[in-house]
Amino acid sequence: MAAGGLSRSERKAAERVRRLREEQQRERLRQVSRILRKAAAERSAEEGRLLAESEDLVTELQGRSRRREGLKRRQEEASSAARPLRPGPLAWWGGRGGLTTAASRQVCDDPELLQRKVRELAGAVRNAKYLVVYTGAGISTAASIPDYRGPNGVWTLLQKGRSIRAADLSEAEPTLTHMSITRLYEQKLVQHVVSQNCDGLHLRSGLPRTAISELHGNMYIEVCTACTPNREYVRVFDVTERTALHRHQTGRACHKCGAQLRDTIVHFGERGTLGQPLNWEAATQAASKADTILCLGSSLKVLKKYPRLWCMTKPPSRRPKLYIVNLQWTPKDDWAALKLHGKCDDVMRLLMDELGLEIPPYSRWQDPIFSLATPLRAGEEGSHSRKSLCRSQEEPPLGDRGTPLSSAPALGGWFGRGCTKRTKRKKVL
């Protein structure tokens, strides 16, 4: 026997014990796997006790199952097994970065399958104790606002070497999905909304400021950071015309202290530090309380990087159930209790019908932005050239000097330079 070591017979005995334990563990894994394949009603009391005593194995097997299903689903999507959608004028700032062909492919559940999934989603909404909604660019495409990762999205076009053009956002109005979320909040079925969108349509749909966390800012809000607390100015026009990545001054001054105002947009590569309208504190609190999360129209490629929104410090069994509505693959699909491949408006129309709730129509006369807005002071009318919102087609926007932007290349603001910063410029010889 070597000094301080085990004898040969002792090493063999220890190896036999180790192999025996491994075999027992494999047998336990097989038993738990067989039980999990049964419906809950078909399991005996003894099998129920075995599952309760094997919580780690149950979690491991359920994780394997989700990964297998996710891989199978992605293979089906990549091979066009699901029905492909014709490219259209779709969504926009749900995230930033590169695209892959498989990930950017749009697929749609057939009507019968979608209806079944919506029925299951409706049950989850009814039973949720604390439901939080995460929204991305896909909920605004019905308002003709372009996205980032869709077939005609900003990043897609830039990667193809094509120019992007600005949209006249003064014509955009809250969509059926925006209004549905507002009604669900009024009915206390939704407790909080966390949005990546900068278009301000959640605010304009009637959601209270306290119920929204606009993580990437709001194009209608500029703030004075010299005032304590920060002083907000809600406008009826896009305040980001002169702003860009790392350059946020809007060219207007605070009515109180005279300091330069800045926009609230968080561009790619920046860290949001403003309290409002980002409202990170409320978003984090809502995520920690949530037992159900509904993701609408987001690629989740940016949101996945915020651990606070996914309760990653909790064990998997105690994290919120996740429901995703998106036409494309997302990095959270494997963790979802249910994935619905459909347009947000189509899904929300079916959901509201299933819940027996009427979707309120949007009315410009009742748009909260007009009561929240601070008018420009004398001499500030020429501080922007963006078209202002007005309550009706006949009403001339006060101090509006703008022209429609649909035919002009996107140059400034959160939709302009924040995107074009990433394009490579050719060297001039």
Q: Classify the fold: give the CATH topology of the domain at 111-216 and 278-365.
A: Rossmann fold
**Rg calculated over all Cα atoms:** 26 Å
What is the approximate shape? elongated
Low-confidence stretches: 79-101, 398-411, 416-429
Query: Oligomeric status of the shown chains?
Result: single chain
Based on the coordinates given, report the CATH architecture of the domain at 111-216 and 278-365.
3-Layer(aba) Sandwich
Beta fraction: 5-15%
Largest sheet features: 6 strands, parallel
Strand pairing plus helix content: what structural class? alpha/beta
Mean pLDDT: 81
Order of helices and strands: HHHEHEHEHHEHEEEEEHEEEHHH
Q: At the first level of CATH, what is the class of the domain at 111-216 and 278-365?
A: Alpha Beta
Number of helices: 12
Q: Into which percent range does the helicity of residues fall?
A: 25-40%
User: By CATH's scheme, which homologous superfamily of the domain at 111-216 and 278-365 applies?
Assistant: TPP-binding domain
Cα-to-Cα separation, first versus last residue:
78 Å
Strand order of the largest sheet: 5-4-3-10-11-12
- How many runs of DSSP E, i.e. beta strands? 12
Pfam family, one: SIR2
Family: Belongs to the sirtuin family. Class IV subfamily.
InterPro entries: DHS-like_NAD/FAD-binding_dom, NAD-dep_sirtuin_deacylases, Sirtuin, Ssirtuin_cat_dom
Active site: 216
